[in-house]
Write a structure and sequence with these properties.
There is one protein chain. By secondary structure, the chain is of the alpha/beta class. Helix content is 29%, strand content 15%. Strand 6 and strand 7 form a beta hairpin. The termini are close together. About 28% of the residues have low confidence. Its EC number is 2.8.2.-. Keywords: Glycoprotein, Membrane, Signal-anchor, Transferase, Transmembrane, Transmembrane helix. It is an enzyme of class 2 (transferase). Its main location: membrane.
């Protein structure tokens, strides 16, 4: 088995030249995710009730608890904000929305001024922590994220709403469990926001890594003593619906092997 491990490790070393390509791909994935088609946008629920307004003062906006919610036509002077969340023409298009019923926003761009939420699906050992820190520290936004502690930040919308637009370990903590996957997040996140009684769209983003290198990195992580004791798998409103394939009572997993 050691020979197998050495062979895999040697294979991973050879692929280190692809690391920068992988990181570049992650950046491209991040920016592309804001323009994904409706196939990759989860709407909850399907029917959106939208009213349009040209008043930019937050106090003038329709109440989000009334019969719908407001998508403001705010035009930011911050080019960085436009580059990430859509250019000026995209904001202009939102002015034309003033209807009720089955509604599909034509450009499917994330709108920070509405009730859209970005959900960071953090896969372990993919530089996800560094990526998450960039989201709360380095985006050029009208309303900067504010640190409440070293690991928790508030990223509020720029139009006076006391509500965050980002769901991640650095804004809400591990609310759905440590490194929650797609199944757990798609069930847990809407329940987290249900108290606000708003119609929302959730934009899921993640960072990918070459799978063998990622697996070996995870193996090294647990060989140093890490465990999955805080992992919760949620499906059909049930935690841990499947039997665990590891010893949950072990104090740590130091020196674990591929066997």
């Amino acid at each position: 088995m050691n020979a197998v491990f050495k062979s895999l490790y040697h294979h991973a070393v050879q692929k280190k030249v692809l690391l920068w390509i992988t990181l570049l791909s992650a950046v491209i994935l991040f920016f592309y995710s804001f323009g994904v088609t409706e196939t990759f946008v989860q709407e909850h629920p399907k029917v959106l009730y939208v009213t349009s307004t040209s008043k930019l003062n937050g106090a003038e906006l329709n109440s989000p608890r009334t019969n719908g919610y407001t998508i403001s036509s705010v035009k930011s002077k911050d080019d960085g904000f436009r580059n990430i969340f859509g250019d000026e023409s995209n904001f202009d298009k939102l002015d034309t929305i003033s209807t009720k019923g089955n509604l599909s926003i034509s450009n499917n761009l994330f709108d920070i001024n509405s009730t859209d939420v970005i959900v960071d699906l953090h896969i372990q050992k993919t530089s996800g922590s560094a990526f998450g820190r960039h989201l709360v520290h380095d985006l050029k936004l009208v309303s900067k994220c504010k640190g409440l502690s070293k690991k928790i930040h508030r990223c509020l919308r720029p139009v006076g709403q006391d509500e965050g637009w980002l769901f991640s370990r650095f804004t809400t903590g591990w609310m759905c469990g440590v490194h929650a996957g797609w199944t757990s997040l798609t069930e847990c996140v809407p329940e987290f926001y249900q108290d606000f009684d708003l119609k929302r769209r959730y934009f899921y983003i993640t960072v990918l890594r070459e799978p063998i290198a990622r697996y070996l990195s995870e193996l090294g992580h647990v060989q140093r003593g890490a465990t999955w004791d805080q992992f919760n798998f949620i499906c059909n409103h049930t935690k841990q619906p499947l039997d665990l394939c590891w010893n949950k009572d072990a104090e740590n997993w130091s020196n674990v092997t591929l066997q």
